[in-house]
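G.,

No rush on this.
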Amino acid sequence: MTASNALSTCRDDDLRAVVRGLLTTIGDKWTLVVIAVLVAGPRRFTAIQREVEGISHRVLTKTLRDLERDGLVSREVHAEVPPRVMYELTPLGRTLLEPVDGLVRWVEAHGRAVLANRSRS
């Protein structure tokens, strides 16, 4: 089944839009890396930024906001000075781990073929 076929089997326009939006979000350069950091448990913004080498403050902020907007990450502000903000995968966010793991297994099985095809072009 192609992505196009998968989208066409979804009869609900709103859900097709969700599929496209989520593929855009999780398919960017940083989202899955941030999710991988949060698998280990709640993290402060600065801890995430330290663990995700090369991500800018602005991009990490946008990534976390997008994940929070979709309900995949929660943000908890603790009333301290300075305020302590913790980010954590939600139960919904954790359900994303299985399909991502499937994608990783697919790449492990077929990634060399993809690389070989790319080198021919």
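When you get to it, here's the other one too:
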Amino acid sequence: MSIDPTVVSHLLAVIWFVGCWFGYTRYASWKARDTACLSSVLHLYREDWMRRLLLRDNRIADASVIGNLERNASFFASSTLIILAGIFTVLGASDRALSLLADLPLVQPVSREMAEFKLLCLALVFVYAFFTFSWCMRQYNFSAVLIGSAPMVGERDVSEQERKAFAVRAARVISMAANQFNLGLRAYYFGMATLAWFINPWFFMLVTVGVVVVLYRREFHSDVLDVMVFTPTQAGELPKEKNE
């Protein structure tokens, strides 16, 4: 029994895509343990934020920041539902979509069943994104509750050790929410790569590698990371203003 080479190429593309996505996720999590990256550096900033929160009685600004972060996750969750609605709309009119794709250059012709399979895979990517963004929203809700329960300045029945433990715990919860947001954004990146699958499975594999390279550079070698880990050589020294 012979196997269709086209089916084999699509199967290899799916395996390559899943391996790159989850392989990079595991690699980034492992490398962040002992290497400066956006997630690890931002966690240190969140710990500083929580320690400073305990030094002031007015926490309105802190609650506002949490609210803004939650709204960002809510925006992406809502956008994901719209994208899913569009995907299922195209799935119901796959014949027309195939005819439109056939007119594009370099597009490999496929059967209707294969096109529907690709659309279902794309839908699964954004279903995953929706669940991560919705879980991110809930975790930011938990963070708001933690901020509301933060010890006030001058409370005598709260020890210094308890205050430090609270700062670490609250920063950890916020970082967990941010990690879910990052996973959701990563799903968007790989969802964009999945669009290349409708052109050609080999091009799909190439674009997937490109997405991994972009994610790695932004997480571990971006300019914003260099700025965030930068420490002035002399404390208190201000940059000199240029003469007009």
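Residues 5-227 form one domain. Residues 112-148 form the longest helix (37 residues).

Enjoy the weekend,
O.
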